[in-house]
Amino acid sequence: MSISLTFALMDAPYESSRTVTALRLIDIAARRGYDLKIFAYEGAVALAYKDQAAHANIVHKHDIEEENHPLPHKWIESLHETAVQHKGSIEWVNCDICGDERGIDNYVECTRGGTHVDFWQFVSSTDNTLVIGTTTT
Amino acid sequence: MSNYMLILSCGPSEGRFHRAEEMARMLRNQGHETTLFLVQNATLAARPSPAGKPLQDLTSQGISVLADEFSLKERGILPAQMAHEISPASLDLVVDALAAGHKVLWE
């Protein structure tokens, strides 16, 4: 039986290295074929926001392609592909209340909206949980 | 007794840094196997320095102190520049701890 883990994320994209470290952890677990449950809470709901757009960098005279600006929603899609390739899974839930507060509802298709009940069910049904709180509390 | 892993991501000038150090000490005093895993700016404390000294002292109490190799590289800290009490480690160890059912807390 596969190992299952829950991760709770809280930081908004582009604001904290915690998010990058968290995604590295999820990537490691995905490569092991684990079944992963991710609950994106508070600002972290914006990680899966589909309207994130790459931009050029005028200061460095880079066009969009040269700048190759990272987009977290692309990382999330890539993590899903990694999990599937390794016969694992990722169920990624974005907190609906947090999304409503921030006007965010256009998520990449490999994620869905949900509530705290999802988080409770994730914690109850998986082998272990890591909560990665915000840097501001 | 339980196995605890504390993940510390902030630098030595922040309050959370000392809170994690204190928590690690308390857990160890209660008899728990305790590991402190440094990531991001916390790895700055892996160098021999007054700021990192409290972490180095933890190892004498039986607490393992590890530093994420990737975070060390990002900050230009070479293994040879690290305090000998602290070891470089792969982030895989955190996933190992989670998979083994250890209590993993991110300060």
TrEMBL record, chain A:
Organism field: Parendozoicomonas callyspongiae
Protein name: DsrE family protein
The organism's place on the tree of life at top rank: Bacteria
Listed Pfam families: DsrE
Matches recorded under InterPro entries: DsrEFH-like (IPR027396), Sulphur_relay_DsrE/F-like (IPR003787)
Gene3D superfamilies: DsrEFH-like (3.40.1260.10)
Automatic annotation (TrEMBL), chain B:
Superkingdom of the organism of origin: Bacteria
Pfam family, one: DsrE
InterPro entries named in the record: DsrEFH-like, Sulphur_relay_DsrE/F-like
Protein's name in the database: DsrE family protein
Source organism phylogeny: Bacteria, Pseudomonadati, Pseudomonadota, Gammaproteobacteria, Oceanospirillales
